[in-house]
Inverse folding.
């Protein structure tokens, strides 16, 4: 017997020795097995024996899919489902680019490059890709010109400050000087207030512009906590 009873028997039934089942709801399942013959019986129950989760998936986006020669763009591997513990492995066609980062910055070396990512969660693998184009052009290209003006005030501050943008903020992350993430939160607003207890020093704020399904890019700012 499996509880909760949100399962479908694909082969056999609850009285079969080796049934094959599919699980219809994400969650924990308890298994109770009773074996018996003409004279005796034995029952064993294991609580939360089976854990089910959403299928692992990855969507690849970039803050720019067309860049000028010599310019860079940032790739984003947006994951969903799986165990939540992900390992990233980026490559490219033409061959030559590798990265274990979730959101690497790339500089295309040819007129078009396909960047491929493989995501492993300890059990399942999901793959995604995106094509980036390179053009010969002139002019100034930077994230703020594309993503809109960003202001942080006051700066320096004591851990309480406001981020104001022209476009919606999806996520804000704060890293210390050795690259350790000390804050991460999802928003859906052009103006957010951060109030964190941080040790004195220099921090880097990474501001993700867009939404969960369409991250346009990131803008980084340095703040000083006094």
């Amino acid at each position: 017997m499996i509880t909760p009873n949100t399962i479908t028997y694909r082969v056999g039934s609850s009285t079969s020795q080796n049934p094959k089942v599919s699980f219809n709801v994400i969650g924990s399942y308890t298994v109770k097995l009773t074996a018996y013959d003409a004279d005796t019986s034995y029952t064993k129950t294991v609580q939360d024996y089976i854990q089910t989760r959403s299928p692992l998936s990855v969507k690849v986006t970039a803050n720019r899919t067309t860049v000028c020669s010599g310019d860079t763009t940032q790739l984003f591997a947006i994951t969903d489902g799986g165990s939540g513990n992900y390992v990233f492995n980026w490559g490219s066609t033409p061959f030559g680019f590798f990265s274990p980062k979730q959101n690497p910055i790339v500089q295309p070396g040819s007129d078009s490059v396909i960047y491929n990512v493989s995501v492993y969660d300890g059990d399942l693998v999901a793959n995604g890709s995106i094509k980036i184009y390179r053009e010969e052009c002139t002019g100034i290209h930077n994230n703020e010109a594309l993503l809109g003006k960003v202001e942080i005030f006051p700066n320096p501050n004591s851990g309480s400050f406001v981020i104001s943008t022209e476009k919606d903020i999806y996520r804000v992350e704060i890293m210390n000087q050795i690259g350790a993430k000390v804050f991460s939160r999802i928003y859906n607003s052009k103006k957010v207030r951060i109030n964190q207890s941080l040790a004195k020093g220099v921090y880097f704020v990474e501001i993700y512009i867009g939404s969960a399904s369409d991250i346009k890019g990131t803008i980084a700012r340095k703040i000083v906590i006094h």
About this structure: Residues 138-142 have pLDDT under 50 and may be disordered.
